[in-house]
Amino acid sequence: MARRCELTGKAVLVGNRVSHANNKSKHRFLPNLKSVSLISDALQRTVRLRISVAALRTVEHRGGLDGFLVKAKKEELSTRARLLRKDVLAKRAENAAAEAAAEQAA
Question: In the predicted model, what is the mean pLDDT of the chain?
Fold first, then answer.
């Protein structure tokens, strides 16, 4: 499994550890990934994702998983997240059409 956030695309960075004597040795900076279950309001189910803690804060700031996926750039998302985004957008459009039909009937 790749060490990559499924929502933001944040991945492993490579750099140097530099000592006081200016000796350099390679170092891998790993993202802070956590496995979480997020609730999708549009799909009315939970989704398990492996995301960075920074992405989790962003999800909460944007109003949940659905809000994050709608505003996210397609290129940053993993394949699973892209499919999830597609389902959320389709469900939102379906709900909007149903509400419009209900208003016209009333």
Answer: 93
Whether domain 13-105 has CATH 2.30.170.40: yes
pLDDT (tens digit, 9 = 90+) per residue, 35-53?
999 999 999 999 999 999 9
- State whether residue 5 is helix, strand or coil: coil
Q: Choose among 43, 31, 29: nearest CA to 7.
A: 31
Domain ranges of the chain: 13-105
Cα 44 from Cα 46, distance rounded (Å): 7
| CA 42 to chain centroid | 16
- Other C-beta atoms closer than 10 Å to the C-beta of 83 total 11
Backbone angles phi, psi at 43, to 5 degrees: -85, -15
**36/60 Cα distance (integer angstroms):** 13
- Containing H/E element for 88? helix 79-105
Return d(Cα 24, Cα 81) in angstroms, integer. 38
